[in-house]
Amino acid sequence: MLAALIGLGLLTGLLAGITGQQAQAGTTDLGNRAQPLLAEAETIYANLADADTTAAQAFLAGGLEPATLTDRYNDDLTRATTALTEAARLTPEGSAAAESVRSISTGLARYTALVATARADNRQGLPVGSSYLSSASELNRTTLLPEAKKLFDSAQQEVRDGYGDAAGGWWSGFFALLILVLLGALLLAQRYLSRHTHRTFNVPLVAATVLTLLLGFGTATVLLTQNRHLNQAEDTGSTPVAQLAEARILALQERGDEALTLAMHGSSDEPEKRWQAADPRLRAALSNTYLPGATSGSYDAYAAAHEQIRKLDGQDGNYDGAVKLAVGKDTTAKFEQVTADLSTALDQRKDAFTTEIDKAGGGLVVLAILGPLVALAICALAFAGIRARLEEYR
Amino acid sequence: MRRTITTLATAALTLALAACSGDASPLPGSTAQPAPETSTSAAAPDTSCNARASLRPSGALPEPGNMPAGSYMATIQKRGRLILGTSQDTLLFSSRNPFNGQVEGFDVDMGRQLAQAIFGDPNKLQIKVIGYDKRVSSVRDGDVDVVADTMTANCSRWKDVNFSTIYYEAGQRVLVSKDSKATKIEDLGGKKVCSAAGSTSFLNIQAVTTKPIAVAKPAFGDCLVAFQQNEVDAISTDDTILAGMAAQDPYAKVVGEKFTEEPYGMALSQNYPEFTRFVNAVLEKNRANGTWTATYNKWLGSFGAAPKPPAAQYR
Question: Considering only CA atoms, which of A346, A337, A25, A341 is closest in space to residue A168?
């Protein structure tokens, strides 16, 4: 009987430690690796899309590319490269994400080289510069962006899996079962002793039972709190982050396609078809509760300008007017209001996630350390309680 | 979806594909493979017609701004602009000037001279950049009024469109790096030679007896990129297009004699023969009054004195 009780107690302690440690590790991984990886993947994806859009607009503007666009392109690439280094650190060796990071790194080096040549040619007035720019754009759209999307998708999957791991999985269920078995064993032991001895209560065993109950309730509280914060982190953090990120990329691609239609000078209507297909999706995404109500209005203004650009270029045959409107201050300001709102909302949601994950991780360390100690105390009390009775038989 | 983007990006930005005279691309509807008559034309040109002979002008040119009622020129005049289909990456003929974003060159000036004759204003011109494989179909379908895009007048195209009289005589040559020992296309056996996909230039490379490896790129600008990145050893297409490339790369030279004949004509709709006659009358006038020579000197003068304008031939 003694051996069984002590065995159960030790097992409970072990499991309390493992449950706490697992949930702790899962939560830490979610907060310190999976979510940052998602953020870096989003940065890479969005900045590559923006670089392509910027390069196309600089080309459209004609002449020496405007300094603001050059700066923006450089910033895009700096941010993408920095995020890529971070992402490389956050991806486990051999994973699909690591593979994507590798091919983006390789492609990005080639992309920057092509754009650099395009600029050098453009500076000398050589039309082949635009061919270099198109090669670069093709590389971006056919290799870099799809890989960035893959990285973003696998980071999202890791976050989803991360919630499962963080909840502690079946360890917590097993632990709950064990607590019940231990409680039952303690009660049985006490009933046996009260029938075979003169004492109704065995004080150390009663104390052990109370401690077991406390351990059970304490663990439940910690795990439920963690669970609530994890749900919060998902609902107000990672889910809207993914939605907003996709909306921002959609917006950037619309703007890029608009420039592309003009740059192709009427030789293809594919980019415009993509614009039209993206429009309803983006409108739906902009009704996100975490965006200010005015964002939809800003987008409407931009979309109206886009219609005007298409009318000028398509129906009126006023190509120069269309280009002027497309790269002009007004249209740019309207569009950038949309992306700025999206960026702000994204940052807020990332912060919300971090806060909730920090809270979720709170009690878990205590559980991992205190759980086994309490279990040892239960064992000691059980030993003390039963040994006293055994000695009476001698 | 990705595939679409690929295709698009291929065409992307400027890149207005090629537009080599040697375009062998079939009309839409049979895009899967080159039409039989064009693929054999590499070895044996279609001589079923005289591709250089166009419709004879009828009477004197009408006054600019006063086109005869009911004619297609009157329709253009009413619209207020002439729509020219061309490319934007063929330096000297029609390319985008990186300094101001305008498309300009010999072919564009051909369009401007027509606008001058219709409106009295060479700037009443809308430039539409078209894919090299859309040159026949965009004229036939009425998307543009005229195509001037280093386009060879040949018999298979005469089946779908009218051509003006010849305004430029080109021929296929080969561009190699400055230190290359090759002096003609035959010296490039086993070497990679680039041309635009679906062009007759491309088919002509394949027909060379010493078997160079023909490499297809979506546009000639892409060929120059591949050449500068050492992906190919040479580029072969019309001398005019090669001249524009050599002008952009001091480490390239054009070698060998012309080994094909590529007479350029403007493509026009068969529905309005009066417009073809009008265009030929404008060409006739500009050959005689020195405008053609001035245009040649403006764009191609650095290659030597202007030759005599190609003589008009009529059916």
Answer: A25
pTM > 0.80: yes or no:
no
Q: Could you read off the pLDDT of B188-247 as tens digits, one per residue? A: 999 999 998 767 788 889 888 999 999 988 778 889 999 999 999 999 999 988 988 998
Task: Say which residue the tokens 């086109």 belong to.
Answer: B67
* Top CATH class, B171-255: alpha beta
The Cα B138–Cα B160 span in angstroms is 11
CA dist., res. B156 & res. B161, Å (int): 9
Q: Where exactly are the structural domains of chain B?
A: 63-169+262-305, 171-255
What tens digit of pLDDT does each residue of B4-36 get? 443 433 333 333 333 334 444 444 333 333 333
CA pair distance A189, A50, nearest whole angstrom: 71
Average pLDDT over residues B281-309: 92
Q: Range of A209's domain?
A: 2-393
pLDDT digits (tens, 9 = 90+) for A218-256: 888 888 888 888 888 888 988 898 899 889 989 998 998
Q: How many domains does chain A have?
A: 1
Judged by CB atoms closer than 8 Å, whether chains meet at A141 and B91 is answered as no
Bridge-partner residues for B253, per DSSP?
A: B176
For B103-125, letters b (16+ CB in 10 Å) and e give: bbbbbbbbbbbbbbbbbeebebb
- Nearest-CA neighbor of B131 among B96, B101, B87? B87
Give the pLDDT band (50/70/90) at residue A360.
confident
Which positions 218-247 of B are in contact with A (Cβ < 8 Å)? 219, 221-222, 224-225, 228, 244-245
Sort out which chain A residues have CB atoms less than 8 A from B6's CB and list them: 138, 141-142
Q: A265 and B7: CB-CB below 8 Å?
A: no
Task: Tell me the C-alpha distance between B220 and B15, whole Å.
Answer: 9
CB count in 10 Å sphere of residue B308: 8
Q: What is the CATH number of domain B63-169+262-305?
A: 3.40.190.10
